[in-house]
Amino acid sequence: MTDKRNPPFFNDDNVGVVHYKLPFSETMELFIETLTGTCFQLRVSPFEQVVSVKAKIQRLEGIPVSQQHLIWNGMELEDEYCLHDYSITEGCTLKLVLAMRGGPVNTRRGAFSPPTGIFTVENVKPVILNP
């Protein structure tokens, strides 16, 4: 039988798990600014994923994670990356942009048919030139 050593987060006396917390110096304060100009503070770890930051914003502000877009240095932050991947440090301000309800605008061009009826250029031109 091999002697399996417990990971360092377990007590030796089998009383229970010792929860490690990062020292306060390992967290940082960020500012989150909305498009309406309101700003709030958020304490996070540099090693937190962006999706975790969005979850904190949801708890504080009630905005669903799926509707949040965080912008820093003109770039949208991707959920699976950590804050330190973007070199985000103490005191940085992230912009919070909300997704549009209808989703993205369809920019594909459809077939164009010329206007018909009373509002053609030929019909409106005389009205404009002779008021």
From TrEMBL:
Coiled coil: none annotated. Gene3D superfamilies: Phosphatidylinositol 3-kinase Catalytic Subunit, Chain A, domain 1 (3.10.20.90). It comes from the Eukaryota. InterPro entries: AN1-type_zinc_finger (IPR053061), Ubiquitin-like_dom (IPR000626), Ubiquitin-like_domsf (IPR029071), Ubiquitin_dom (IPR019956). Pfam families: ubiquitin. Residues 28-103 form the Ubiquitin-like domain. Signal peptide: none annotated. PANTHER family: AN1-TYPE ZINC FINGER PROTEIN 4. This is Ubiquitin-like domain-containing protein. It comes from Sinocyclocheilus rhinocerous.
